[in-house]
Specification:
By secondary structure, this protein is α+β, with helices and mostly antiparallel strands. The chain has 3 domains: about 5-60 and about 200-225, Pseudouridine synthase (2-Layer Sandwich), CATH 3.30.2350; about 65-200, 2-Layer Sandwich (Pseudouridine synthase), CATH 3.30.2350; about 230-295, PUA domain (Archaeosine Trna-guanine Transglycosylase, Chain: A, domain 4, Roll), CATH 2.30.130. The chain is built from 8 helices and 19 strands. It has helices spanning about 15-25, 55-60, 95-105, 125-130, 175-185, 215-220, 225-230, 240-245; strands at about 5-10, 30-35, 40-50, 65-70, 75, 85-90, 110, 120, 125, 140-155, 160-165, 190-200, 200, 205-210, 235, 250, 260-265, 270-280, 285-295. The strands form 4 sheets. Strands 1, 2, 3, 4, 7, 10, 11, 12, 13 and 14 form a 10-stranded mixed β-sheet that branches. A 5-stranded mixed β-sheet has the order 15-17-18-19-16. The chain has a two-stranded antiparallel ribbon with strand order 5-6.
Length: about 300
Amino acid sequence: MDGIIVIDKQKGISSSFAVRKFAKQFKISSAGHAGTLDPMATGVLVAGLGKGTRILRFLEAMDKVYTGTIQLGSATDTDDAEGATVEELPVLRLTENDIVNVLTKYTGEIKQLPPSYSAIKIDGKRAYKSARAGETPKLALRDVTVHSIKLLSFDNVAYTIQISVHCSKGTYIRSLARDISRALGTCGHLSSLRRESVGLFDLSRAIPFPSEVTKEQVDNSLISISDALKGLQSYVVADTDIVNIKMGRTVLLKERVSDAEDALVKSSAGEAICIASVRNISATGESYLQPQRMLV
């Protein structure tokens, strides 16, 4: 079984556990996932099966959309509901306009400090392992892009804010929840999170897991490698060129095209052959494909 499956991960399990359990249930020897969801979070988890694992790093780079709830008034050591409360502060009188004005400050290209309990490696050690040992991980600010944050609702009795976030790879919604709460004059944490989409993959294509899922459902939901990479530039090559590509050789294109780091190379029958970079020869004006990642 080769391709991509979109799992609607349920609450309380890790992404790795969900994929391992899925692979074991359907006797799949090779499986992995693109973009980790915390155990507390639910929603879209993109899983690669068989040769589908070879394209996961290209899918992981896609933008994400989340809906989440921020609980104002209490901060936790993990910046979400899984952690221990480390601070409590009163919540100021707020209006929806006050919240929208603050959310605006966290859109665009921003610098973000990841949570202490994160999987980022520092000197070869995961940050969360240092945090669990009572140490303070020395995390650096990261550049991320938040395309938009929308206020979905505000409960001024329970002091909860529900938001929708469209963001780049590497954005921590827990950090956004923490920082937005501070900007509103209090503290807070992320109390729920659901990932709605990863690039082209959304919940409409997802199968809930773990749950009662049949082999037929999996077969009907399997996305081919070619379809999964629809967002990339693509080029169809002749069968004679495929032989050269499989040997790692470059292939000239019939016309000059723009440079691209990642492009999908397909056969005339539509089969995904490889991911290639597109390069131009300035002296001759020709363009060629340089194979990078074989998919057959």
